[in-house]
Design goal:
With about 240 residues, this protein is of the alpha/beta class. Helix content is about 45%, strand content about 15%. This is Enoyl-CoA delta isomerase 3.
Length: about 240
């Protein structure tokens, strides 16, 4: 479902398998396991780059898995329960990223839709290829109300203009538009150029050799509403050994 490789101080988390990379319990648990390993192996100067193989970064929640809930006298209720379970699992994945003890970079080399976009913006920095791929919140078009965690995450991570464009217009944004709205830091001409830029950024950040625990607490402090939804508590002030 995903692989984790380490080269120098940079961890490369790559979503593999089915080209659409839909978020279901198997993929979420695979991503969480990889993040746990990165956390355990991290040192000062570590950084994480997340990307995916194929046409998609992620095509969002696996609604086919949700709707395939076992037959019962109330199949719609079973599907609702399964969707609620999936949202709760996804919250734990977002919490893992928000509390991760290193810089995080999403290298968008394919389409990013719905929950995939939530995964994307949970990183500190986002770089995107300009020759292919779009960002798209599909919920309005498919008649699905946004979960509370989605609204809070978008509100915490992007500006109000981008929020309206994504959530109230269901716009499909290309890289240049996403950069202009502040959703994406940089656009690059190809998948290769995007990954190269992500590595350069990871190396640049890693040279600062920040205390990872301090880094994570500062990140959490930037998003108090989101951390409240995710159940992430801030720790007491941490004194760095370098001070």
């Amino acid at each position: 479902m995903c692989t984790l490789d380490k080269r120098g101080d940079i961890f490369f988390l790559t979503i593999t398998g089915d080209d659409k990379h839909r978020l279901n319990p198997n993929l979420i648990e695979s991503l969480r396991s990889a993040l746990c390993k990165a956390r355990e192996q991290s040192t000062r100067g570590s950084a994480l780059i997340t990307t995916a193989c194929g046409k998609f970064f992620s095509n969002g929640f696996d609604l086919a898995w949700v709707e395939s809930a076992g037959s019962s006298s109330s199949p719609s209720s079973a599907a609702h329960d399964r969707l609620h379970h999936l949202i709760n699992l996804f919250n734990t994945l977002i919490a893992d990223l928000i509390s991760l003890s290193m810089s995080t970079i999403a290298a968008m080399t394919g389409h990013t839709i719905g929950g995939g976009m939530m995964l994307m913006i949970s990183h500190n920095y986002v770089l995107m290829r300009s020759d292919r791929g779009a960002l798209y919140m599909s919920e309005l078009d498919i008649g699905m109300v946004f979960p509370d965690n989605t609204s809070v995450l978008v509100r915490s991570k992007v500006g109000s203009a981008a929020e309206r464009e994504l959530m109230l217009k269901a716009s499909k944004l290309r890289a240049e538009e996403a950069v202009a709205m502040g959703i994406v830091e940089e656009a690059h001409c190809s998948a290769e150029a995007t990954m190269e830029a992500a590595v350069r950024l990871g190396e640049k950040l890693g040279k600062r050799k920040w205390n990872g625990e301090v880094y994570a607490e500062i990140r959490k402090g930037l998003y108090p509403e989101l951390c409240g939804v995710l159940g992430l508590a801030n720790k007491a002030a941490i004194a760095s050994s370098r001070l």
